[in-house]
Amino acid sequence: MKAASLGSFTFTAHLIEVGIDASIGTVGDALDNALMESQIGLYKAEPIKPRKPSKGLSDVEVATAEWVDWFNHQRLHTAIGHIPPTEHETNDYAQHQPQPAGVSP
């Protein structure tokens, strides 16, 4: 058995031992990668392809930073009430904080 295979086997065995499912699908299906592939597709279509050709790595780094900022802080997400993800996260976090004694919500 190769070292990488042994490591994967050991990792999978540990996940099973502690009751964690290692995968939502089976080996060879696309279910594990569907969300990430969708995200990568958006990334390529939105900040990368329209700016071609990039003059170098710094162009890609700047485009990526700008897109991640927009994606997290400005994009209105329909599934969470047409607000940016960071606003939703802040609201959710605030709702789940313990209230100090004597303070009503």
UniProtKB/TrEMBL annotation:
Integrase catalytic domain: from which residue to which, for each copy? 19-85
Specify the signal sequence span. none
Q: Where is this region: Disordered?
A: 81-105
**Where in this chain does the entry annotate a coiled-coil region?**
none
Output the Pfam families linked to this UniProt entry: rve_3
**By what name is this protein known?**
Integrase catalytic domain-containing protein
Q: Which organism is it from?
A: Microbispora amethystogenes
Task: Supply the source organism's classification.
Answer: Bacteria, Bacillati, Actinomycetota, Actinomycetes, Streptosporangiales
